[in-house]
TrEMBL record:
In the N-terminal section; belongs to the proline dehydrogenase family. The gene is putA. Oxidizes proline to glutamate for use as a carbon and nitrogen source. The chain holds residues 537 to 1043 of 1044 of the full protein. One of its GO terms (cellular component) is cytoplasmic side of plasma membrane. This is Bifunctional protein PutA. GO terms for biological process: L-proline catabolic process to L-glutamate. Residues 26-488 form the Aldehyde dehydrogenase domain. It comes from Qipengyuania soli. The active site is at residues 265, 299. The keyword DNA damage does not apply. The lineage of its organism: Bacteria, Pseudomonadati, Pseudomonadota, Alphaproteobacteria, Sphingomonadales. Signal peptide: none annotated. Keywords: DNA-binding, FAD, Flavoprotein, NAD, Oxidoreductase, Proline metabolism, Repressor, Transcription, Transcription regulation. The keyword Flavoprotein applies. It comes from the Bacteria.
Length: 507
């Protein structure tokens, strides 16, 4: 308590502060502002958002394009120092960041702390990548009399389009990678969470990154479409739904412009397989964390639990016990495990899904919600039994867990069904059998495979994160190949013999 109380007091002092988000380049024309409300209490505002006007989007891209060669020429070391300075400033503004994560995105304090940690980790990791990859040319082998070298450079203006579920970490991560590689960035955060993004951009400018180099663009999908249809955009890094990624891909392809780089991190239909050798207490802890932490609003979250039928009754009973003990409510309350979902649309989509499943008559457990949750976007944590992962047609982004029983001999079919969803993001396995682990590891087409632990919370550098198939293009965020996708390669070959020409070939 001695450590926690001053923090809680400082957060309480920020409780009524109002924030504003608008584009970095402001034309002076009057645009409409919209209120941003707390997901857990729609009667309370956190601030306002003013969407970018078409002329502001065009001007932002023009400025980013004009300054890009200079930013690229700065070199890896100087860009690294600026990104590290931004990381320090993020840490120095812990209170504001935690407060905004809680009020704008409805995060619990634990999730808010993890979010800030991940954002800072991304900044420092990509700063390291700027140093590793962009400081000096890479010498290449060649015959005597010939000098070959390869340099990496920025591609141009990158657009980053980021989601509300990691409004700071996944806003800043792709942008930092693009900046590290020598690109300039126009960044459009989700329309639900522009305030924390605006603070992040402001802190980057304070760190010394020029305004034209890293620009905020506010707005919803229509503003995103203005950006991705612009022929001056050299690449897009997008995190969000598979459907939006497909639409962006079409928009980029339809331009009369150079072929763009497209990096997409999208949805999942993530499963966990539990066999009869698994440890029940561990399974219970990891299932509950994977399915219900962050109110299930992680693309890594567990959606479908496969339990071997011999142990299913006991395992489900234990999981249900822990599920009944979850505290659902106001994320400002330290005791809360499950907060709200992001907005009324998300809430309605989840309720429709549960209602459809109820009609199909399978066992459903739902938690009761306390009356005070009625003022926010709360969805009661739910567990639903069903026959196969293939009964689900889409990702259900919230605190809803589906359970399927399987026979030990059907493990290969379970893995085939998981692959047949077309998604390939996270997969969990609880088993003490080495051959089962090897089998699943070899056959499952997923990006991140977690064994005997939970399947959320990938850590920068230790667990580079990202999927395949409908889950995204790769490469993995926070891994050694990510920044390379934001760069172009240039090879220089110099004949260093006195005679020049083809002397080395003729010799
Ligand atoms: C997402 O929800 O978009 O592994 C990604 C995790 C996080 C990434 C989630 N580091 O849960």
């Amino acid at each position: 308590p001695t450590v926690r109380e001053p923090l809680l007091e400082r957060l309480a002092a920020l409780e009524s502060r109002q924030w504003h988000a608008e584009p970095t380049f402001v034309s002076g024309a009057e645009g409409e502002t919209a209120p941003i409300t707390k997901p857990h209490d729609l009667t309370q505002t956190v601030g306002t958002r003013r969407d970018a006007l078409p002329e502001e989007v065009a001007e932002a891209i023009a400025r980013a394009e004009a300054i890009q060669p200079g930013w690229d020429a700065l070199g890896g070391e100087k860009r690294a120092l600026l990104l590290e300075e931004a990381a320090d400033l993020f840490e120095a503004h812990t209170d504001e960041i935690l407060s905004l994560c809680q009020r704008e995105a409805g995060k619990t304090l634990v999730d808010a702390v993890l979010e800030l940690r991940e954002a800072v980790d991304f900044l420092r990791y990509y700063a390291g990548e700027a140093r590793r990859l962009f400081n000096a040319p890479i010498p290449l082998p060649g015959p005597t009399g010939e000098e070959n070298r390869l340099t990496l450079a920025g591609r141009g203006v990158f657009a980053t389009i980021s989601p509300w579920n990691f409004p700071l970490a996944i806003f800043i991560g792709p942008a930092a990678a693009a900046l590290a590689a020598g690109n300039t960035v126009v960044a459009k955060p989700a329309e639900q969470t522009p305030l924390i993004a605006a603070l992040a951009v402001k802190l980057c400018h304070q760190a010394g990154i020029p305004e034209d180099v890293f620009q905020l663009i506010t707005g919803a999908g229509d503003v995103g479409a203005m950006i991705t249809s612009d022929p001056r955009i050299a690449g897009v890094a997008f995190t969000g739904s598979t459907q939006t990624a497909q639409a962006i891909n079409r928009s980029l392809a339809a331009r009369d412009a150079p072929i763009a780089t497209f990096i997409a991190e999208t949805g999942g239909q993530n499963a966990m397989i539990v066999d009869s050798t698994a440890l029940p207490e561990q399974v219970t802890r990891d299932v509950v964390a994977s399915a219900f932490q962050s109110a299930g609003q992680r693309c890594s979250a567990l959606r479908v639990l496969y339990v071997q039928e011999d142990v299913a009754d006991g395992m489900i009973e234990m999981i249900r016990g822990a599920f009944e003990a979850l505290s659902v409510g106001d994320p400002d309350d330290l005791a809360t495990d499950v907060g709200p979902v992001i907005d009324p649309d998300a809430q309605a989509a989840l309720e429709r899904h549960v209602a459809r499943r109820e009609q199909s008559g399978r066992t459903i457990w739902r938690r009761d919600l306390a009356p005070e949750t009625a003022k926010g976007c709360f969805v009661a944590p739910t567990i639903i039994e069903m026959d196969s992962i293939l009964d689900l047609k889409r990702e259900n982004f919230g605190p809803v867990l589906h359970v399927v029983r399987f026979k030990a001999a059907d493990l290969p079919q379970v893995v085939r069904d998981i692959n047949a969803t077309g998604y390939g993001l996270t997969l969990g396995l609880h088993s003490r059998l080495e051959e089962t682990r090897e089998y699943v590891e070899r056959h499952a087409r997923v990006g991140n495979f977690y064994v005997n632990r939970n399947q959320i919370g990938a850590v920068v550098e230790s667990q580079p994160f990202g999927g395949e198939g409908l889950s995204g293009t790769g490469p993995k965020a926070g891994g050694p190949h990510y920044v390379l996708r934001f760069a172009t390669e240039r090879v220089v070959c110099i004949d260093t013999t006195a005679a020049g020409g083809n002397a080395t070939l003729l010799a």
